[in-house]
Amino acid sequence: MKRIRYGRIAALVAASAIALTACGSDPVESGGDNGGNGGNGGGSEESLSGDLAGAGASSQEAAMQAWIAGFGSENPDATVTYDPIGSGGGRTQFGEGAVAFAGSDSVMDDEERAAAQERCGGTDAIHLPLYISPIAVIYNLEGVEGLQLSPATLAGIFNRQITNWDDPAIKADNPDATLPNKRIIPVNRSDESGTTENFTEYLAATAGEAWPHEPSGDWPLQGGQSGAQTAGLVQTVKGGDGTIGYADASQASDLGVAKIKVGESYVEYSAEAAAKVVDESPRAEGVPEGDLAIDLQRDTTAEGTYPIVLVSYLIVCKSYEDAAEGDLVKGFVSYVASEEGQAAAEQAAGSAPISATLRGDVEAAVESITVGS
Amino acid sequence: MTTTGDPAAKPARPGKQRAPQRPGDLIFSISAKAAGVLILVILAAVALFLIVQAWPAIQLDSAELAEEVHWIGEAQSLLDYVGPLVFGTILAALIALIIATPIAIGVALFISHYAPRRLATSFAYVIDLLAAIPSVVYGLWGGLWLMPKLYPVFDWLATNLGFIPIFEGPAADPPRTILTAGIVLAVMILPIITAVSREVFLQTPTLHEEAALALGATRWEMIRMTVLPFARSGVISAAMLGLGRALGETMAVAMVLSPGLLYSFLILRPGQQQNIAANIALKFPESSGVGINVLIFTGLVLFVITLVVNMLARWIVSRRAEFSGAN
């Protein structure tokens, strides 16, 4: 098994090396090719070849594997690799020019933007929100279905101020449910995670005084139940009675999933509602043209949006000097943004596919990437 | 059992002077020597690696440390961070030892002195098999099978013995506590303590045993008068070997414990303690820069603790040797 895989990788490397040499030997003609590729929207007809390296957020890892596999089957001569070293590491490597694109859960700061600009030959780097992962509030409480929670109640539970399921605050959110007199066992992630960071960001943005902690990837409180990784957390929630936790929505399995109060109504998690909050949120301010970084409105009141989401970006240059690299980036990002790519990620990682509106914006941004100079 | 060095050393000396040397002798002695040196080199390399890699964290003062590593609080020194981890590591290992040692001695005595010969052999084999199970599997077993069964017990302890400080409730549900981790660890270190104890029990001089029986001792009295005194040092070193394994256990602990960084003796509450190895496994994937150096420093501390425990075991064994029934 292993030997076969090594053989395949070796073959790919060899093939791409040959392809690259071919490109290098005749720059004029390859330049002509690039124009053609850009014209037909990322080379879906002509297959691309070469090596493309990316690095960054581990949250995208599962989706990225699906994208790499899907892109690879369309372009058998192209090899994409992704090193899930974490968002910060990915942005650093991108700035240093070690990788052609980065995956990141957060937007670059000014320093990183400057490094990226240098790396992109004077042009800016842009953020493309291509991975939306909804976070579900899961609970295990016998006899209670369709639990409804307002942000303040949710924060009170996770801040351990609300300790019993028949607390008046929970009753107020669930006028029709019969809530048992049972202690609440909040469960958090024991390892540092983007899920925790986004969940605490949501609480900090919406719950006001009920959530006095700073958003962070590490859970701010000590002395509670916790589980390592999503699987450990889900298992802990399952293992107790009266437990409540938060996890990637795809992993909620057969546990109860709470509806979250947005505006005046309680919204059940769905892929559409998660994608909608990204559409409803305005673009981040002060970003270069074509940059699709968003200022996620966690406290949105728009109908039918689900605000507890993790949004992860692909960071790419607006211009690539190396034509082969640029074409590959354009081809790969186009695939990731395509319906097919988003469906592959949904299946592999349980992410929410981006909306058609956002897809249009991403396609326009990819189109504007210039290749070869 | 524990002093394997001596008998080998004696015949080697005269051999150097006059025994005829064949190529095989030379090759074997060189390869044996090389293997012996290699293990020392590896040990030294590991120690060196730990020190070199931990150094960037050691030389920072606490303010710099808090800035570089976000999970270290302000005004918290490196030792402040490691302290609770050391506490948790030792607590979990001690719980395991307290549970496992009596059971292991019982099992070993059963195999060596009570069970019929044929049963004893296959029984010993089954016990040894426990040692071959990977710790991830123990973690799964502890998390999925054992925990639901432990909760009623823990709940009972918390309700009825809650006045004893360590059993203060309410008991965690699911019971992801240091006591569960200790129980899983106890099962994991059972085979090694049993195997070593069994070998030591079997080495009791038959003449001693027969003399005791001839004086009218029952089997239990015979064991108490001859086997146990003779084996005492061996059992202690067996327990220390088990302790060494329990100290360094990673996956099983990471999978059954809700971690926390407190100096807490509450063994029925979640999120109180954490052990060093599990903490490294948990924190490493998302760490970078000095964070990794801090984790490696905790590894260095664990290395030192294990070294001290082993040296302590040696010391106890050598001190007890003269009092044991062996002489």
Automatic annotation (TrEMBL), chain A:
<feature type="region of interest" description="Disordered">
    <location>
        <begin position="29"/>
        <end position="55"/>
    </location>
</feature>
<feature type="compositionally biased region" description="Gly residues">
    <location>
        <begin position="32"/>
        <end position="44"/>
    </location>
</feature>
<comment type="similarity">
    <text>Belongs to the PstS family.</text>
</comment>
<dbReference type="InterPro" id="IPR005673">
    <property type="entry name" value="ABC_phos-bd_PstS"/>
</dbReference>
<keyword id="KW-0813">Transport</keyword>
<feature type="signal peptide">
    <location>
        <begin position="1"/>
        <end position="24"/>
    </location>
</feature>
<protein>
    <recommendedName>
        <fullName>Phosphate-binding protein</fullName>
    </recommendedName>
</protein>
<dbReference type="InterPro" id="IPR050962">
    <property type="entry name" value="Phosphate-bind_PstS"/>
</dbReference>
<dbReference type="InterPro" id="IPR024370">
    <property type="entry name" value="PBP_domain"/>
</dbReference>
<keyword id="KW-0732">Signal</keyword>
<keyword id="KW-0592">Phosphate transport</keyword>
<feature type="domain" description="PBP">
    <location>
        <begin position="46"/>
        <end position="340"/>
    </location>
</feature>
<dbReference type="Pfam" id="PF12849">
    <property type="entry name" value="PBP_like_2"/>
</dbReference>
From TrEMBL, chain B:
<comment type="function">
    <text>Part of the binding-protein-dependent transport system for phosphate; probably responsible for the translocation of the substrate across the membrane.</text>
</comment>
<feature type="transmembrane region" description="Helical">
    <location>
        <begin position="85"/>
        <end position="111"/>
    </location>
</feature>
<keyword id="KW-1003">Cell membrane</keyword>
<protein>
    <recommendedName>
        <fullName>Phosphate transport system permease protein</fullName>
    </recommendedName>
</protein>
<keyword id="KW-1133">Transmembrane helix</keyword>
<feature type="transmembrane region" description="Helical">
    <location>
        <begin position="288"/>
        <end position="313"/>
    </location>
</feature>
<feature type="transmembrane region" description="Helical">
    <location>
        <begin position="179"/>
        <end position="202"/>
    </location>
</feature>
<keyword id="KW-0472">Membrane</keyword>
<keyword id="KW-0813">Transport</keyword>
<dbReference type="Pfam" id="PF00528">
    <property type="entry name" value="BPD_transp_1"/>
</dbReference>
<dbReference type="InterPro" id="IPR035906">
    <property type="entry name" value="MetI-like_sf"/>
</dbReference>
<feature type="transmembrane region" description="Helical">
    <location>
        <begin position="250"/>
        <end position="268"/>
    </location>
</feature>
<feature type="domain" description="ABC transmembrane type-1">
    <location>
        <begin position="86"/>
        <end position="313"/>
    </location>
</feature>
<feature type="transmembrane region" description="Helical">
    <location>
        <begin position="26"/>
        <end position="52"/>
    </location>
</feature>
<feature type="transmembrane region" description="Helical">
    <location>
        <begin position="123"/>
        <end position="144"/>
    </location>
</feature>
<dbReference type="InterPro" id="IPR000515">
    <property type="entry name" value="MetI-like"/>
</dbReference>
<feature type="region of interest" description="Disordered">
    <location>
        <begin position="1"/>
        <end position="21"/>
    </location>
</feature>
<comment type="similarity">
    <text>Belongs to the binding-protein-dependent transport system permease family. CysTW subfamily.</text>
</comment>
<dbReference type="InterPro" id="IPR051124">
    <property type="entry name" value="Phosphate_Transport_Permease"/>
</dbReference>
<keyword id="KW-0812">Transmembrane</keyword>
<dbReference type="InterPro" id="IPR011864">
    <property type="entry name" value="Phosphate_PstC"/>
</dbReference>
<keyword id="KW-0592">Phosphate transport</keyword>
